[in-house]
Fold this sequence. Notes:
The termini are close together. The protein is flat. It has two helices and two strands; from the N terminus they run E-H-H-E. By secondary structure, the chain is α+β, with helices and mostly antiparallel strands.
Amino acid sequence: MPLNVPKEIKRVNKQVLVELSSKSERLNLGRGREPGWLDQHLADDATGSLRAIS
């Protein structure tokens, strides 16, 4: 991966984070928290950052 990848790729809301976590779980990809954990512990108005990692 190039060294000049931005640290923050995209800001997303709680719903999108839960959906992406569910999708990555279905695809057996590495990910952060489980969808259920995110849904239970994030405020409804929470936002997060998607980041590129290598």
